[in-house]
Design a protein that fits this description.
Layout (H helix, E strand, L loop, with lengths): L14 H18 L10 H33 L1
Length: 76
């Protein structure tokens, strides 16, 4: 089973939906790192969540690039 993200799926264009998704990812990442909701969020937690988000974005970019390359190869 391949780990691929289809470009053919609809990307939500509603900025509220994208904002909600970003917030949920950030909060869940912080929770996994042990953040329990105290204010302010420790800087170390913020930095780790940011690093994780960067790594995810880089990985998704590579997956999308590979899919683009595969489609171009099939086209010709």
């Amino acid at each position: 089973m391949e780990n691929r993200i289809s470009l053919k799926s609809q990307v939500p264009s509603d900025p509220v939906s994208l904002g909600d998704l970003c917030q949920a990812i950030f909060i869940e990442g912080a929770r996994v790192l042990g953040y329990t909701g105290e204010a302010p969020m420790p800087r170390e937690v913020q930095e780790q969540v940011f690093l994780a988000a960067t790594l995810v974005a880089d990985g998704l970019g590579l997956l999308l690039q590979t899919e683009d390359d595969d489609e171009q190869e099939l086209a010709g």
